[in-house]
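Long-time lurker, first post. I've been practising inverse folding by hand and with some scripts of my own, and I keep getting stuck on stretches where the structure tokens seem ambiguous. Below is the full token string for one chain I'm working on. Before anyone asks, I'm not after the true native sequence, just a reasonable design that respects the backbone. If someone could post their per-position residues I'd love to compare against what I wrote down in my notebook.
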């Protein structure tokens, strides 16, 4: 018989997976329980509503994502390398989560937050908190790029970090609508370069191992 903690974790992981592949509004408690292999009684032992499960699942997913981001944005990398790491991370995550009918899944937390109504405050709160988490990393990235002198002008880090988040989420929704990961791959790097206003000599191929920019293609 599975431990109660195992049951709760299974519900969290199943909820995120199903919502990622579909949407928050289309996935019900019955389907989550069925796919997780647990009873509704077990579900309501841990969560009062689907929104409560979603909020907890977002927190659970963030703990995993945070570890990945801490690695990608490690101080051992230059800011340019961190930017390229971010681009690779977004693409690789989409490739991992893709299903045959949905090559671009996007962010279930962001899309659920956009769909929620007045009665889904926990869903909106999850989206707000996850957006703030992303903004923290983006702001630090812009600050580091600025310090390295690879940007044009004098950007305001938090504002540009916010623009990065908005662009990434919007692009993923666009790719989901068109069901095209190739479109995301084509526009992601160029869009981020333009938003951060990266100097031309640092664009395209990233940086070499010695930190020197590669020549533009």
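-- Answer (accepted) --
I ran through it position by position. Result:
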């Amino acid at each position: 018989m599975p431990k109660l903690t195992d049951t709760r974790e299974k519900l969290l992981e199943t909820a995120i997976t199903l919502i990622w592949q579909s949407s928050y509004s289309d996935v019900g408690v019955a389907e989550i329980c069925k796919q997780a292999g647990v009873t509704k009684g077990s579900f309501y032992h841990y969560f009062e509503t689907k929104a409560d499960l979603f909020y907890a699942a977002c927190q659970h997913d963030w703990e995993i994502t945070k570890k990945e981001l801490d690695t990608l944005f490690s101080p051992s990398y230059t800011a340019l390398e961190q930017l390229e790491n971010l681009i690779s991370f977004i693409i690789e995550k989409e490739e991992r989560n893709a299903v045959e009918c949905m090559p671009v899944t996007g962010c279930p937390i962001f899309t659920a937050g956009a769909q929620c109504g007045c009665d889904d405050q926990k869903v909106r709160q999850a989206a707000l908190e996850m957006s703030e988490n992303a903004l923290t990393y983006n702001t630090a990235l812009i600050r580091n790029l600025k310090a390295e002198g690879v940007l044009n002008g004098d950007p305001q880090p938090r504002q540009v970090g916010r623009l990065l988040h908005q662009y990434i989420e919007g692009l993923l929704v666009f790719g989901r609508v068109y069901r095209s990961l190739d479109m995301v791959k084509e526009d992601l790097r160029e869009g981020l370069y333009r938003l951060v206003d990266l100097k031309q000599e640092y664009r395209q191929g990233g940086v070499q191992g010695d930190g020197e920019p590669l020549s533009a293609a």
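A couple of notes from the structure itself: The radius of gyration is 19 Å. The domain at 58-202 is CATH 1.10.357.10 (Tetracycline Repressor; domain 2). Happy to go over any region you disagree with.
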